[in-house]
Specification:
It comes from Actinacidiphila alni. GO terms for molecular function: catalytic activity. InterPro entries: Phenazine_PhzF-like (IPR003719). The chain is α+β, with helices and mostly antiparallel strands. It folds into 2 domains: about 100 residues, Roll (Diaminopimelate Epimerase, Chain A, domain 1), CATH 3.10.310.10; about 100 residues, Diaminopimelate Epimerase, Chain A, domain 1 (Roll), CATH 3.10.310. Strands 1, 2, 3, 4, 5, 6, 7, 8, 9, 10, 11, 12, 13 and 14 form a 14-stranded mixed sheet that branches. Strand 12 and strand 13 form a beta hairpin. The chain is globular, with a radius of gyration of 17 Å.
Length: about 230
């Protein structure tokens, strides 16, 4: 077990992923370390809906890094902020979500994962002329998944962004989204420093053969008692 966190048996770790340097903001993530307590998609989907985080991760093998990811409304083969968070928590070199092997490194401040751009689901990347335009956006009606962004400092690779999943599952705006940052990095072909939502920070860098490295700060926010699985 990762020495950073000692979770009671059956507990749910609540992490903040992609937080700012002051440990504020970031996206909440639920991690069920003992995934075997919730076997099957029905039980896992029900718990993810009950918890209400944008994503919840179930750990099926902590040594191999085998994980399973859910939003409140569906299962995901890949998602960025859950993989960064669970990589930090398990302290492993490789994760194994459904899409394939995800390599991990930690530089002491940021946890990084190396992923492939084609793993990310489609997003509508909408560029705006000014960060103030992004700040002023209203939450759109459910429908298209929108990643709104503008250059803060193009020479330095600094971007202002907000994310609107449009799923209609109660998550109107996603505070920090690794998959959308991955797609934007692929499109622009350069390293980015993204400030998203209220002040979350996501770092990215393109790699060889269509890979992208995504990094962020992670910390433990709380440990919850897991409810009993439905019978």
């Amino acid at each position: 077990m990762n020495a950073r966190v000692k979770t009671p048996s059956g507990g749910i770790d609540v992490l903040r992923v992609f937080s700012g340097p002051d440990r504020r903001h970031g996206n909440a993530l639920g991690v069920v370390r003992d995934g075997a307590r919730f076997p099957g998609r029905t039980a896992r989907q029900a718990l993810a809906a009950e918890l209400g985080f944008s994503e919840t991760v179930f750990v099926d093998d902590p040594e191999r890094g085998t994980v399973d990811i859910y939003t409140p409304g569906l299962r995901l083969p890949f998602a960025g902020h859950p993989l960064v968070g669970v990589a930090w928590l398990l302290d492993v070199e490789v994760l194994e979500p459904e899409v394939g092997e995800v390599f991990v490194r930690d530089d002491g401040e940021f946890t990084w994962i190396t992923v492939r751009a084609e793993w990310a689901p489609p997003r509508s990347l909408r560029e705006y002329a000014l960060p103030a335009e992004v700040d002023a956006l209203e939450v759109p009606e459910p429908g298209e998944w929108v990643y709104a962004w503008a250059w803060q400092d193009e020479a330095a690779g600094r971007i202002r962004a907000r994310a609107f999943p449009g799923r209609g599952d109660g998550i109107e705006e996603d505070e920090a989204t690794g998959a959308a940052a991955l797609l934007l990095t692929q499109r622009l072909g350069r390293a980015l420093h993204i400030t998203q939502g209220r002040g979350s920070q996501i770092l990215t860098a393109p790699g060889p053969d269509g890979t992208v490295e995504i990094g962020g700060r992670v910390h433990l926010e709380a440990v919850l008692d897991a409810p009993a699985p439905a019978r």
